[in-house]
Amino acid sequence: PPGPTLTLFALQEMIPILLALALLPTLTVDGFASPHMRSPWSSSSGGPTAHGSSFVRGSPKSNAKTTTYLNSLAPSVAESAVDLSEYAPRNIIGFKYWASTMGIEKNDCFKLEEQDKKQREIYAMTTRSTEAGTAVLYVPEHLILSSSKAMAELRTDGMAEAEEYLASVGAESQLREYYLMLKVLLEYQKGSDSEWHKWLDALPRYYSNAVAMTEFCLTCLPPLMKKLAVEERDAQKLLSYDSIRSVPFLADDIKEGFPRDMVTWAYQIVYTRSVETEDGDLKIIPMGDFFDHASDYAEIVPQYDEAGNYYAVTAYDVPAGKKLRYIYSNPRNPSHLLARYGFIDEICPATYCKLLPPTVNEEMIELGYSQEKMLFYRSGEVADEVWDIFLYTHLSSVSLEDQQLLMQAHRTGDAATKLALHDKYYHATSAALLDHVDGFIEDIDRLIKKAQTIGVDDVDSIYIRNEHPRLPLIHKHNLFLRETFQNVRDRYASAAMGGEGVNWKEATKVLVEECDETECSIAECIQVAEDEWSCEGGLGDRPKSQQVILAE
Predict the structure, then answer these.
(1) Res. 505 pLDDT band, cuts 50 70 90
(2) Average predicted confidence (pLDDT) for the chain
(3) Triad 483, 487, 491: Cα angle to 5°
(4) In degrees rounded to 5, what are phi and psi of residue 293?
(5) What DSSP letter does each residue of 158-175 carry, written as one string?
(6) What is the pTM of this model?
(7) Does 69 score more than 60 pLDDT?
(8) If you write DSSP's letter for every residue of 434-480 in order, what string do you get?
(9) Eight-class DSSP state of 38
(10) Residue 131 in contact with residue 170, Cβ under 8 Å?
(11) How many other C-beta atoms lie within 10 A of the C-beta of residue 141?
(12) Contact 375/510 with Cβ under 8 angstroms?
């Protein structure tokens, strides 16, 4: 019967783990074989130390098999290669055993959690309260895949044709990602002979990002999101077709087969699981790639010692049962997160305002025109940069003199002059804002209705599940945008229509989001006198960026 059989299989899978744990050195109360995890910087010659001597870890395997594959005239994909079908099970038990035998160390507060039986989301979390500064995970350097090591290993004379092709299509800037893809493909090709086979077998096969979307899905995206999705798909095609066919050490099964099965999967791994370090290297860190994304504040700070070993260190006191997260990308651009990583951040505080002027000049960029700064907040607030761009655009047709006065005030930090200009033209700029918001809401409503006509709201729809399984996520993204834009409209509509409204420049109480490189915090500020404010909370005197998210 299925039940007992699965139970017996699980027990059989656990036996090697239990045996391996029995052979490990005695664990400390922190859950590690030695106390070096607490001090990532204790050694400069071979990693951390314990009791004055180097901590011994498994050394990298010989590269003899790699050399054989690179020199083979007729390489082939091993029969033991990972099953890449979208719904293939992820071998998490085998991965945990592999990690324990290869030198990856986890604090006893660290756990991998499976959200559902489909294994769509597997993430790291805490099992107990964990103090700030605790190393919860250690990964030795030899297990970290990186673009620099991949290029050193694979960038031979035989790769000249592939690189020439990439240069001819303008993709030379993607060489780091390209060689990391080739490394993943090479290890996939080796099957169980690969040092990373168990890790590869634990990775997702199903993705919901732009590369995985159907053509119909693209038609349900708003213009900017569709632009991002097309760019992602174009980048994948440039790195996955003709250039791959010129790689001498890859099997014909990979080069001539259906790209989604192998090459596209490698692309997904590199673009969704790699992180860029300060030296410009791209790294994929087995086990460290199971941390979720954070949009508000991150639990994890990545650190490396002099030998290149990786440590995941807690940024604050983390309670039990909390997801361990770090920031993948700009948390205030949910469209990019969906296009690149394939998820919606439900606590994302803001989104790009989707303003796409016919032309963007240097002065507009100087005023702050960028997707990172032109924000609509879920509270209905609008970033200062958005108002500046609306004012600049309006002045280009009514007063070039005031337009240059705006630029001069911006460059010199003359807040009073800038405020006076905003007050003078507020009726016109708020009307322009409302016009933009109404136009976007009208467009997004059409897309929402389009998805609803084929049953996207029906959670049991077999058609959606089989033909467009990613459409519900796109629909959720569109609903998030509509809600945010509606909140902006509700906040400013009366002022734009000539009513009293809420003039954001006349607030006497504001909530300010303050962020530095590691965290964000909210400060509540009350005006006690002209140009004098009293604030509580926030990040104090630390260097930070500030953004008003609510004004009264």
Answers:
(1) very low
(2) 82
(3) 170
(4) -85, 145
(5) GGHHHHHHHHHTT-GGGH
(6) 0.75
(7) no
(8) HHHHHHHHHHHHHHHHHHHHTTTT-TT-HHHHHH-TTHHHHHHHHHH
(9) G
(10) no
(11) 18
(12) no
